[in-house]
Specification:
The complex is a heterodimer of chains A (445) and B (212).
Chain A: E1 9-13, E2 16-20, H1 26-35, E3 41-45, E4 57-63, E5 66-73, H2 81-85, H3 93-97, H4 105-120, H5 128-156, H6 161-181, E6 190-191, E7 194-195, H7 203-225, H8 229-235, H9 243-248, H10 254-257, H11 265-268, H12 289-316, E8 335-338, E9 341-344, H13 346-355, H14 357-368, E10 376-384, E11 387-395, E12 403-407, H15 409-413, H16 416-421, H17 426-436, H18 440-444
Antiparallel strand pairs in A: 1-2, 3-4, 4-5, 6-7, 8-9, 10-11, 11-12
Helix pairs in contact in A: 4-5, 5-6, 5-12, 5-17, 6-7, 7-12, 12-17, 13-14
Chain B: H1 40-50, H2 54-57, E1 58-64, E2 67-72, H3 77-86, E3 94-95, E4 99-102, E5 111-119, E6 124-132, E7 138-140, H4 149-160, E8 163-165, E9 193-197, E10 200-202
Parallel strand pairs in B: 2-6, 7-8
Antiparallel strand pairs in B: 1-2, 3-5, 4-5, 5-6, 9-10
The chains are: A alpha+beta (445), B alpha+beta (212).
């Protein structure tokens, strides 16, 4: 159908026409460059490159080592999750959206569930214990996500040791996730109406121990990087983006807070009861990579504070429900984590298979058919480690979403690459991209 | 929204539930009446004051589930956006992107574009909604108003085929450049899996029997 495409040249083979997508524009680029007398070099960085934070393609136009134009090419990890959810029930949607930004699964799930609950009009009916567990899980997730941001960010700039420490701490958080939900990533733990299951015995004790360990171990990375001359030379004044730039580009999260703007949805538009927790919004006013790095370091401590408060609340609310009372919406079975993984609790199986035919019918209808959601549209947002994760949900009154759209902070913030990198050195584009902390699963969805 | 008959959306065969004659009523949301509640009255009043063509530009004001949606005519979208951004008492300085929704049953208004706006100054959120006919899917680009809409508009073009006039470089962003069609549209053909078992084939997800 296309006659000429500079990004995908076509060749006819015996098997039919074959398109080679990547690098197909190279010939035309070289001819174009040959015609001008300037000494321009176009470097194609990625999509398979150890320093581009995933399958991100950067097309850099250079004069010497100075970047005159930077363009980001994305789409290499597009999986069509939004389209897929249109053919699943509202509850099944959780298992899909958790895989978007795979470093912040709990945030995707919570944003999605808050949206579904808003559509159902049951936001006020969510049990407090469910919200407390959501807060606990989100803050644990913020730590594990920031650990990857710090670890890989340092690694990409050539500092290897911080990565080892960061992943060591991240493993501890993932162990807690595994204990609570049965899975280390992509948990599908937050469900419309509450959470999939209550905390297991001994979870609070384990979390308190982990918090103590983390607080102690975070110092390792602090000692390595904060105030380190080499690290500061690589990051200070790099990837500069001021408040006006952030606002016009719609940037949120640590990048916005590095301009001194204390914008955090947990404070400005609280959800899940965040107004009942004491914590500070961390800001710096340097607008650079170092500032964003400091923010992430200090947000770890704030997350630990919230986790401790959540643990206190959870000890008090022991035994209370974790799923909305409305049986037309609440998932009928409680899950349990067995030695062979996650599954339906044995008590529930005994009830539906052995004692109550009505329970079996109810279970079957709700699991296969799902619940109906009144027609309309909503927007719900949470403060993810990367900024505002917003979800726009449209329902036509059926058992499946009519449209699910995620406003991913990674997708939006990655637009700032050009503004941060142009005019700088080629080595600094790595630091700039790392400080945005894009997760390509979220960018491409 | 589409009108379906029965519980499964199929007719003629397959429905053994006995509810085959049911016609679920399609809910249509009309314009809301004043007072809108919350800060919504203030926002609409301020916009009306700042923008003399308000009554001409805004087709509908809908308040639903604690959210305000302004349905804007596409000719007036750019001006409305400028007023919403620049008026001191409104100051919607952040646009959280644009999202398309395809309603094939909504004749000559098939494609909708939805803009969630955020005012950090006043800590308020509203939503703009514009509809365009499938036959003429043109919208003014808002990249000049909010530069961050650049990629979002490219995504909406890629997924829905809405053309944003005045966009600095409207190319596909998630799908490969030579991709035919716009995948998020409801009429986009889904592949399905060509599995044959005793002469039966496995239909595409959009053609399978399912609860509506």
């Amino acid at each position: 159908m296309t006659t000429h495409d500079s990004y995908a040249s076509a060749t006819d083979t015996t098997e039919g026409r074959v398109y080679s997508v990547t690098g197909g524009d190279w010939d035309s680029l070289v001819t174009e460059i040959g015609q001008t007398k300037e000494e321009r070099v176009v470097v194609n960085m990625g999509p398979q490159h150890p320093s581009t934070h995933g399958v991100l393609r950067l097309v850099l136009e250079l004069e010497g080592e100075t970047i005159t134009e930077a363009r980001a090419g994305i789409g290499y990890l597009h999986t069509g999750i939004e389209k897929n959810t249109e053919y699943r029930t509202w509850t099944q949607g959780v298992t899909f959206v958790t895989r978007m930004d795979y470093l912040a699964p709990i945030f995707n799930e919570t944003a999605y569930c808050l949206g579904v609950e808003k559509l159902l009009g049951i936001t006020g009916d969510i049990p407090e214990r469910a919200s407390e567990i959501r807060v606990l899980m989100m803050e644990l997730n913020r730590i594990s996500s920031h650990m990857v941001a710090l670890g890989t960010g340092a690694l990409e700039l050539g500092a290897l040791s911080p990565m080892i420490f960061a992943f060591r701490e991240r493993e501890k958080v993932l162990d807690v996730f595994e204990m609570i939900s049965g899975l280390r990533m992509n948990m599908a733990y937050v469900r419309p109406g509450g959470v999939a299951q209550d905390l297991p015995k001994g979870a609070i004790t384990k979390i308190r121990e982990t918090v103590k360990e983390l607080r102690h171990n975070f110092k390792d990375n602090e000692k390595l990087l904060v105030g380190n001359t080499i690290w500061m030379m690589r990051t200070q004044g790099i990837g500069y983006l001021d408040l006006a730039g952030c606002i016009t580009l719609g940037i949120t999260g640590p990048v916005l807070r590095s301009t001194g703007m204390p914008w955090d949805l947990r404070k400005t538009d609280p959800y899940c009861g965040y107004e009942n927790y004491e914590f500070d919004v961390v800001t710096t006013d340097t607008c650079d990579v170092y500032g964003r790095f400091l923010i992430r370091m200090q947000e770890l401590e704030q997350s630990l504070r919230i986790i401790e408060q959540a643990c206190d609340k959870l000890e008090k609310s022991e035994g209370q429900p974790v799923m909305v009372a409305d049986k037309k919406i609440a998932w009928p079975s409680q899950l349990s984590v067995g030695s062979d993984g996650i599954g339906n609790s044995l008590d529930h199986i005994r009830e539906i298979m052995g004692t109550s035919m009505e329970s079996l019918i109810h279970h079957f209808k709700l699991v296969t058919e799902g619940f109906r959601v009144p027609a309309g549209q909503v927007y719900a947002a949470v403060e993810s480690p990367r900024g505002e994760t917003g979800v726009h949900l449209v329902s036509d009154g059926g058992t499946r979403p009519y449209r699910v759209h995620f406003r991913e902070p990674s997708f939006n913030n990655l637009q700032a690459t050009s503004a941060m990198a142009e005019g700088g050195m080629i080595a600094d584009v790595i630091g700039a991209v790392a400080s945005i902390d894009p997760v390509m699963g979220g960018v491409d969805r | 929204m589409s009108e379906t008959i029965g519980m499964f959306g199929t007719s003629g065969s397959g429905d053994t539930s006995g509810f085959g004659g049911l016609v679920p009523s399609a809910a249509s949301v009309g314009s809301s009446e004043r007072p809108y509640g919350s800060y919504f009255d203030e926002v609409t009043d301020e916009l009306e004051r700042a923008y003399p063509e308000f009554s001409d530009a805004i087709e509908k004001v809908i308040v639903d589930r604690g959210e305000l949606t302004l349905h804007v005519k596409r000719e007036k979208l750019f001006d409305t956006a400028m007023k919403l951004r620049d008026t001191q008492s409104l100051r919607f300085e952040i646009c959280l992107g644009v999202n398309g929704v395809h309603y094939p049953e909504d004749k000559s208004r098939e494609l909708h574009a939805v803009y969630p706006l955020l005012s950090m100054t006043h800590n308020r959120r509203i939503r703009l909604e514009v509809s365009v006919p499938d036959a003429d899917p043109h919208l003014p680009s808002l990249v000049e108003v909010w530069a961050g809409n650049n990629w979002h508009e490219r995504e909406t073009w890629d997924m829905f085929g809405i053309i944003f006039d005045g966009h600095p470089g409207l190319t596909r962003i998630l799908m490969p450049d030579d991709w035919p069609g716009h995948p998020q549209r409801k009429d986009y053909p889904l592949g399905g899996i060509p599995i044959e078992y005793k002469g039966a084939t496995f239909p595409a997800p959009s053609e399978r029997r399912s609860y509506q």
